[in-house]
Amino acid sequence: MSSSTDWPLWEVFVRSRRGLSHTHAGSLHAPDAEMALRNARDLYTRRSEGISIWVVPSTQITASSPDEKDSFFEPAGDKPYRHPTFYEIPDGVKHL
Amino acid sequence: MSAALALGDDALVLSHRLGEWAGHAPVLEEDVALANIALDLLGQARVLLSLVGDEDELAYLREERAFRNLQLVEQPNGDFAHTIARQLYFSVYQHLLYERLAAGGGEFADLAAKAVKEVAYHRDHAEQWVLRLGDGTDESHRRMQAGLEALWRFTGEMFQPVEGLDDTGSGLDRQELERTWLAAVTGTVERATLTLPTGPRSGAWAAGAGRQGLHTEPFGRMLAEMQHLHRSHPGASW
């Protein structure tokens, strides 16, 4: 029986066939990247054709700290010119 | 239709063996992988057996002597390495066979073309694991080698002619198939730092026995378990 120390954790990002970007789908354990890809295919894609999978060792991901939330994420709400939300989007513009 | 029966029984029996792993594989991810392969094979079996007759009757109401599967696929799972050795031998064979059937344009060309993508994945899965177990720890190397040795004597049967498969314009060349299989298996085994078994490729039974309905002892018990419910409630629908 393997333990999670033998089988590191991997994060899985999947781009669906018509999707534009890779989306975090979940995580899994695998002995190496090749097996992580195969396991991700079985677990998260059900083998739809034409998709892309990224696997990343969880240890390679650096997350922002919840403690830094204020300075990191809170925008200056009283400066609306910093939020380009006033534009009308013409019909026919895709992928926006 | 004996060829459809032979190919269908191979897939059905191996699918059942892999199904026995459910919930017992070394890790969750592998549990899912083995179940996926089992489901692929069951799907292939259903198509093939439906060509012959009623798939449920064929699966659940035939006696052991009426099954035409290879003796290789009926062998018990053993440990994980033993199962992987069985997968390597069979899935390389099945992949090469289905590639040729798909290209040959015979009566099995369409279904082989559909199944060959699945089987390519089964082969890749088996090869990946042979490499990891063979080139892993001393213990995994020993077990992988033991699995290859234990099943070696069942590999000759795969290259015996199958009535209705080799002689219906499929253009199948069994000798070429065997050479290609041997080269592929040898390559994987050597990359995995393992040694290709040297024993005979058929056991005390004549090669081709499974195709004639002659099976090894564990197969009867497998069938008893597989068929029990259907035989207890004949005619039930589910």
Overall geometry of chain B comes to globular
- Helix percentage of chain A: 10-25%
Any guess at the CATH architecture of chain B? Up-down Bundle
Q: What's the number of helices of chain B? A: 9
* CATH C-level category of chain B: Mainly Alpha
In CATH, the homologous superfamily of chain B goes by the name: Ferritin, core subunit, four-helix bundle
**Helix- and strand-based class of chain A?**
alpha+beta
Mean pLDDT of chain A: 82
CATH topology of chain B: Ferritin
Q: What global shape of chain A is seen? A: flat
β-strand number of chain B: 0
State the strand order across the main sheet of chain A: 2-1-3
Outline of the structure:
The complex is a heterodimer of chains A (96) and B (238). With 96 residues, chain A is an alpha+beta fold.
Task: Explain the overall architecture.
The complex is a heterodimer of chains A (96) and B (238). Chain A has helices at 33-45, 69-73, and strands at residues 9-15, 23-29, 52-57. Chain A is of the alpha+beta class and 96 residues long. Chain A has a three-stranded antiparallel β-sheet with strand order 2-1-3, with helices on one face. The longest helix of chain A is centred in the middle third of the chain and has 13 residues, at 33-45. With 238 residues, chain B is an all-alpha fold. The longest helix of chain B is centred in the middle third of the chain and has 26 residues, at 109-134. Chain B has a single domain (2-232), classed as Ferritin, core subunit, four-helix bundle (Ferritin, Up-down Bundle), CATH 1.20.1260.10. In chain B, 42% of the residues are buried. The interface between A and B is medium-sized, with 15 and 12 residues. Chain B: One of its GO terms (cellular component) is cytosol. Chain B: This is Phenylacetate-CoA oxygenase subunit PaaC. Chain B: Pfam families: PaaA_PaaC. Chain B: One of its GO terms (biological process) is phenylacetate catabolic process. Chain B: InterPro entries: Aromatic_CoA_ox/epox (IPR052703), Ferritin-like (IPR012347), Ferritin-like_SF (IPR009078), PaaA_PaaC (IPR007814), PaaC (IPR011882).
